[in-house]
Amino acid sequence: MKPVYAHVDQAACIACGLCQMLAPKLFDYDSEGIASYTPDHNAGTTPVDPADLIDLKIAFRRCPTGAIQHSEHPFNEQ
After folding, report:
1. For 41-44, which contacts have Cβ atoms below 8 Å and span 24 or more sequence positions?
2. pTM score, whole prediction
3. Which keywords appear in this protein's UniProt record, sorted alphabetically (predicted)?
């Protein structure tokens, strides 16, 4: 299984709270309610723990703005 990396496009985030509700181990918010991927402070360079992939996919599919991004490559390589 290839690793999966995640990142939140913070410019697209509308602070709805859905991702943190669906995947609390993966997402948190700043003081303005903008989400970030917590395992690597939104850098997109730490693979998602395989045990958390289902939660990531659910949050990704339910994000109303598409702010949650995922890739098979770290985001600093794209």
Report:
1. 42/7, 42/8, 42/10, 43/7, 43/75, 43/76, 44/5, 44/6, 44/7, 44/69, 44/71, 44/74, 44/75, 44/76
2. 0.91
3. 4Fe-4S, Electron transport, Iron, Iron-sulfur, Metal-binding, Transport
